[in-house]
Amino acid sequence: MLELRHVSKTFHPGTVNAKTALHNLSLTLNDGDFVTVIGGNGAGKSTMLNAIAGTFPIDSGAILIDGKNITNLPEHKRASFIGRVFQDPMMGTAGSMGIEENLALAARRGKHRGLKWGISKLEREDYKALLANLGLGLENRLNTRAGLLSGGQRQALTLLMAALVQPKLLLLDEHTAALDPKTAAKVLELSDNIVNENHLTTLMVTHNMKDAIAHGNRLIMMSEGEIILDISGEEKQRLTVEDLLERFSAASGTELSNDRILLGA
């Protein structure tokens, strides 16, 4: 479903601030894979997601989704088949618009916009049913502005919006990092449910080793713009935080010194 072929990206090339964020990176995700991505600061995790989403052009290599080369496709056109949830809960919704209006926008993503802008009764009932599944009481607040919701509620709504028109690929970019532990656990549970129920091919960047191990069917660890560990199947199920730290050290030749990851472990 996703293929990265020898992708490289250097920011500020030819200057003293030159930073190679991705180095000859190759990765293949099969249909339905749920891959967690972990690594220290500057490992290239978010840069990889931004490259896939088309936030910036890559220097070399190719990006394919469902067999189609999208390397030169602009970001707004990729949005029709890539769903994304950001770290900041404020980024995924229009705060001044109601819950049902945000859902209607998501439902029309990638479709031709005609003269009919209203939300039908059938759509409204569908939105209520979907929101009820979140277990947050939002089905009774369809006209509440998204900006009045808590961070966790907005992330849950953003997740629902990202999967409403089933994308070929779902990108979760540290989408629980700004939430308190209890809310983060709830959003992760919702993420699992949405991914599994819709059989979504998913990449989830996280700073928490326990979450990276507990979620998904495959785990990759990045360092200096490269994938240094790729663990799946029964091997991943047996994995512990201690194992992961040891394997990182063996693969990279260095100790993992990122406080955020170690504290989250």
What labels describe this entry?
single chain; 265 residues; alpha/beta; Rossmann fold; 2 domains; six-stranded mixed beta sheet; four-stranded antiparallel beta sheet; 10 helices; 10 strands; 36% helix; 23% strand; globular
What does this structure look like?
The protein contains ten helices and ten strands. By secondary structure, it is of the alpha/beta class. The chain folds into two domains: 1-81 and 167-265, Rossmann fold, CATH 3.40.50.300; 87-166, no CATH class. The protein is globular and about 60 Å long. It starts with a strand and ends with a helix.
Supply the CATH class of the largest domain.
Alpha Beta
Q: What strand order characterises the main sheet?
A: 6-7-8-3-9-10
User: Helicity range of the residues?
Assistant: 25-40%
CATH topology of the largest domain: the name is Rossmann fold
Whole-number total of structural domains? 2
What is this entry, summarized?
The protein is of the alpha/beta class and 265 residues long.
Topology (elements, then pairings):
Elements: E1 2-11, E2 19-29, E3 34-39, H1 45-53, E4 60-65, E5 68-69, H2 75-78, E6 82-85, H3 99-107, H4 121-132, H5 151-164, E7 169-173, H6 181-198, E8 202-205, H7 209-214, E9 218-223, E10 226-232, H8 233-237, H9 241-252, H10 259-264
Parallel strand pairs: 3-8, 3-9, 6-7, 7-8
Antiparallel strand pairs: 1-2, 1-4, 4-5, 9-10
